[in-house]
Amino acid sequence: MRFERRLDQPRWLAVAVPMGSIAVGFALMAVVLLATGHAPGPTYRRLLDSAFFGDGALSATLVSCTPLVFTGLAAAAAFRMRLYNIGGEGQFYWGAIAGVGIALYLGDRGVDSTPAYIAATAVAGAAAGAAWAAIPGLLRAFAHTNEIITSLMLNYVAGLVLTYLIIDSRSYWRDLESFEGQTFPLGKMIPEEAKWPSASLDAFGGIVLPLGFGIAVALAVVMWVVYARTRFGFELQVIGDSPRSARFAGMRLRRKIVAVMCLSGAVAGLGGASFEADFAYQLDPTGLQTSFYGYMGIVVAALARYNPLAVVPVGFLLGGLVNAGFTLQGADFPSGLVGVMQGLILFCALAGEVLLRYRLRMGRTAPRAVDPQAEAAA
Amino acid sequence: MVLASVNDTFVVVIVAAAVLYGTPLLFAALGELLAERSGVLNLGVEGMMLVGAVMGFWAVQRLDAAEGVSLAGALGVAAVAGAATALIHAFLVITLRANQIVSGLALTIFAGAAGLSSYLGNDLNLSGSPAEHAFSGLDIAGLGDLPVLGPILFDQSALVYLSWLLVAAIGVYLARTRPGLNVRAVGEAPASADAMGIDVAAYRYTHTLIGGALAGIGGACFSLQITPQWVGGLTGGAGWIAVALVIFAFWRPDLCLVGAYLFGAFSALPPTLQARGWLTGIPSEVFSSLPYVMTVLVLVAVSSGAARRRLGAPAALGVPYVREER
Question: What residue in A sits closest to B105 (Cα-Cα)?
Fold first, then answer.
């Protein structure tokens, strides 16, 4: 078997490869299930039921999908420039901390207008995420420090901050008054007015559309426009493909690195704020640290091939998986299954990339004479 | 009992514990070093460690044998599990030329705290029970009570002595043997190595797999000695610290040892302080975050300015080798 570089990439393959990856991923997962003594058929049926087809399944899937779209956009924003921000997890935590913090603060000041709360939580979450992402961004820009490792290490630090705020201290975020709060460490509930509204659709037997999902979709469109249609987006592409040419063309690399990291962190932070104001309403360190939304964002972005518009449908599909994972968790649906499945799909997508770039030739035939002009064009 | 009391002082206890906590980092970092020296960056260390940890623990629970045999078998199982996990990465990046960074991240997500390791732990019902056998201090020739040196050098577990052997072996291998020199050639200039008749892909496969095996053993250090039981995600980022360690160590095995014990000391600090009831006024999270914060700080120190020029990063690290596309 040999690989032959493609001179042009057929458009249909760009859609067929991710779809094929998902199909092959499911097939491989069936092998894992069989190997560990589970029947794949019924497992998949229950999975699809609780993810998409059962009563209320779509609404629940939207709940899991909203944070994934945010973290997926965050990862895509940076990965586009080959800036590997894998600190989405920590930036998401900080968005949650800041969003809940400002909602509690405004609640104590007696604010009762929901739009004010929405604006405040969104801005605070985005700012906190951006600030946390600025650390690896500045270190990368000015000290050439590998952003993969620094952004990842900061995830653990952010997780410890969460634990400290709720479990190990008597912080502003912790509920010290209610009976439950005194017996068990719990986060304070944000005021009723601070909860983001949701819209109900009558289609498909009633779907609840959270405000955060709407914001995420709008953000995906804005990001697509910025990345595909503006000078800023073009420069990012050039820097990602060839930092040398970018420097010679007079692009300001350091500024762009910091700007893109902050943008990516802001999106992840906004996701954290939306997660709190849309669904969780209180800071829960264990819940946040065991749902891995930040890390899954990387899977979403990679499957979407870093295209912001594709992040939305991919986030929806994986959100379905995550939601099914939460609902079905138990003896015959061990936790971890969802992560395994996402990993397998991602491996298939990576392997599929090779089909986009190369043509597979079977057999050990001698290479044909190559047209020198085509060679030069390649 | 003067001798014993010296050995109870904070410094001796923390250094001995640094060796204990540094050993998994050392195994994983040595493995990553071998893979990177052959030109393959594998960011899946955390995932490979967790798979090694869970499979090693499974083996020790299920093998019905004498302690030594059972533990040796468990290490073997952990190494095979780690290597099998690394095989996915090797196939994707060496044969299919996928992006090494994304593939490594995918490996950590697939195998890590939310993936295969946790699935296996649940499915094999491993959590909640302590290990049937665990590695413990060997007290070599009764020298474990020697003042200062005893607990640090002579009362460590077999894993620690194995890691020391490995540091020496890898040092000699890379500097003094033909295959070792070939690995370096493959990592620095694969095209020249290919022209010399070295099979680039075979070298990269072998060293990525050995890297996975060592990461698996590193993971087993947690489940068979430090914890010693199975808890999901028990490595807590050690795999990532190991990736950073290879950079701090300028891709040299001897410096990996120094770095691993330095970071072992940071990891050993919170439990040691807690056991003594010291510094309880400071939130324990401050100490728990030390390994992560120090990793960032040391990485900044070695990656800026003067140190950067002396770095020993293999020139072809992370670059797929395709004979037709040079």
Answer: A298
